[in-house]
Amino acid sequence: MKLRSVLAAFAMLTATPAFAEVKTFAHASGWEAFGGVGDNGTAVCGLSVESDDSWFSLKYFKGSSVLTVQLSDSEWVGKVGDKVTLGMKFDDHTSWRSEATAFKLNKDIALEFSVSSSQVDRWMEEFKESQNLIIVFANSSVSSWHADLTGTKVIGEAMEKCVGWMGSR
Fold it and tell me: pLDDT tens for residues 40-71?
């Protein structure tokens, strides 16, 4: 499906906020780019990758000043609301540090943190240019979390087009 037709469908979805629907419009090496209207009626663009036991998602909600990152692993334990300090490293780039908050995702514990507007451009460039992502959890017994970033240049650019289009509406 061509991006233009997906964006036309996205326009129809955003025109009716009471109708929550998010559609996948691009695929690359297991990654997916998506866009539409979330359950709360807010337009969203994002990307994600999923395996049998883990999941990673990056989302931009219209009107927000941040990117929202969510990740989960079926082996994680914890309580909703727990705070976890993490370090994130794309290939040989400088590490990023953040504090994530635990939430429930289906039956698993997941983590969510934000990338501030002042850091979004650099974060996205590193994400698109890198081959590997390693996330290390400070002061925790949780094992490091790894993601293969093959395909993120294509999928990151697709998400950026969605966000750019959303901003022009």
Answer: 899 999 999 998 888 999 999 999 999 999 99
Q: How far is CA 52 from CA 56, 106, 129, in A?
A: 12, 14, 25
Distance CA 16, CA 37 (A): 9
Alpha-carbon distances, residue 137 vs 24, 84, 96 (angstroms): 30, 7, 12
Nearest to 32 by CA among 43, 47, 42: 47
Task: Give 109's contacts (C-beta < 8 A, 6+ positions apart).
Answer: 72, 76, 77, 78, 79, 80, 102, 103
Give the span between the Cα atoms of 45 and 22, in whole angstroms.
9
In whole angstroms, give the CA distance from residue 112 to residue 54: 14
pTM of the entire predicted model: 0.84
Q: Which of 44, 66, 80, 156 is nearest to 114 (CA)?
A: 66
**3-state SS class at 46:** strand
Per the structure block, which two tokens stand in for 148? 């293969």
Contact status, residue 65 vs residue 116, Cβ threshold 8 Å: yes
